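> Could you send the RNA polymerase sigma-70 region 2 domain-containing protein prediction when you get a chance?

Sure thing. Input:
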Amino acid sequence: MKTNTEVVTAAVVGLSGWDALVERYSRLVWSVPRSFRLSHTDAADVYQCTWLSLAEHLHRLRDPEALAAWLVRTATRQSINVLRLRGREVPPDRWEPESTLPTPEDVAIGSDRARRLWAALTTLNERCQRLLRIAAHSPELSYAQVADALGMKVGSVGSTRSRCLAALRVKLEASR
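Output:
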């Protein structure tokens, strides 16, 4: 088996030495970005950048026997750069298209709806107001929890809620 010095010298001179370098250290270079838990695509980018960097600096390599450490150090720096850049990026699924931003008309209509809703809610009896407020602000509560909070029977929560919503609908229709 050839030494690193022989393989590096062959790589500087021609392609066959380069192939031997890639074959010898490919798994090592791949292991670095994967140890940073980069995605396959990002790991492939780090892998390619590491080999490109070696190709650019191969003729200046001082100690060919330390090539493994040089490759690990270079791949580590590339991996850290990828992580740093990914931390600054906003994933596309978090982008808000401009069309979802409310227009002044949307704000005005929403404010009017909210005002009418709260005005209609205050005309309901106290029991309905409390029940609908709990339903709106704490939808994760079970009927048992709502019944306990309002001093009601568990079996009456659903039907009372339905009656209160129907009464609220009537009052909202009348306020149009």
